[in-house]
Amino acid sequence: MVTLIKRDLLSTKNVWLFVLLALGVVWAFLYYIILWNSAEISELLMIPAFLNIYFGYGLVAHVCRVENLNRVNERVLQLPIHFHVLIMSRYLTSFLLVGILLLLNLTMLVPLYLLGGSIFNLSEISSYIYLLAHLMIFIILIYLPFYFAKNSHVATWATRTSIVLWLMYIFLFPEVYARRVYDQFLPDVFYDHLVGVLLLATLIILPISFASSIWSYRLKRQLKGILLPLISLCLCIVILFAGIAKIAESETLTGIAEILMDTKVEKIAVDAFPAYQYKEGETPEEYRLFISLEFTNENLLNQRRMVTQDATISIAVTGDAHTYLGLNSFGTPLEFILSRGHYLGLNEDGRERYGYEIEAPNFLSLEEKMSYLEQFNDQDFTVVIESNWLKDTGTYTLKWAER
């Protein structure tokens, strides 16, 4: 097997010079843009990512095309070597080629991080490595079964089709699903969860792909139909990826719900101010009322992009408050509260504190104002947070902070 792997690696020696030159130029450009112009690295990393995916696929395809042209397999199988060994050697060669490309990426990333660590987000870097490793291995797991079942030409078209479907799976299908089910755009955290399990899914597909290659190659040598192993492989991938998407969806819903449900009501108050400007010494006849709400959350500022696109804080008014204020309920988008600078700092317990106020429609006389403020009860107000991301009812009644 070692001899077969060495033979495959040597067949790529003339290609590596071009690969190293292209990667060197791209990474030199990234070093210049990121370190001297302080560009956002998360968007620029897509350039070497696509280049590495292309080279990873190209190297594996090159090995297989050279083998086809020289009819190596036919000569090798005349030796006392089982075809299982031939297939295993090709998988190991492909993983070695992908591993070398990933190692080159890490070699370029580490100095870049050391030189400009302040502009790096480690979660973005880890997601980049996971996604790159997943897609490069996924291409191998598609290409090789089709190659051993038919030839390099068919394997190339199968790989191109799978890449198109993969891009639709990542960028199109989740958004369409979220718009239909939740009437919202997917938050970025969904893709973080998805990338986290995609590499694991690839490792699950690995033995299935290897078994499909052996099965289809045996049928090919026996001059039998090879559709069944290939269809079985495709069905397994579809089922597995659908399950992964549901897992990522569930983790996204759970994460958003935990952040929203962590919100606690700190204070509800009603303040009265004269409805009009009065001369000095005159007693105001009517008063305007303002309801103010203060609430806290553990880490809402950092997570606002994930949870606030449709979240609304609503307050239901009952009892004397309903009578005096002339309100049944009112709501304010959470994004409006955060964007308008209603952040009040940190509580003693380290929780972020926010506040906002709204004017009641009713004007009260002096006697009504005095009567209501004397018997004011904040329990007449029920604070509810609403979001399509909340499971079941889409609402959650906020709890009061400990008093």
UniProtKB/TrEMBL annotation:
Keyword Membrane attached: yes
InterPro entries: ABC2_memb-like (IPR025699)
Top-level taxon: Bacteria
Keywords, sorted A to Z: Membrane, Transmembrane, Transmembrane helix
Membrane-spanning intervals of the chain: 15-34, 46-64, 91-115, 127-147, 154-173, 193-214, 226-245
A Pfam family the protein falls into: ABC2_membrane_5
Name by which UniProt lists this protein: ABC-2 transporter permease
Source organism of the structure: Anaerobacillus isosaccharinicus
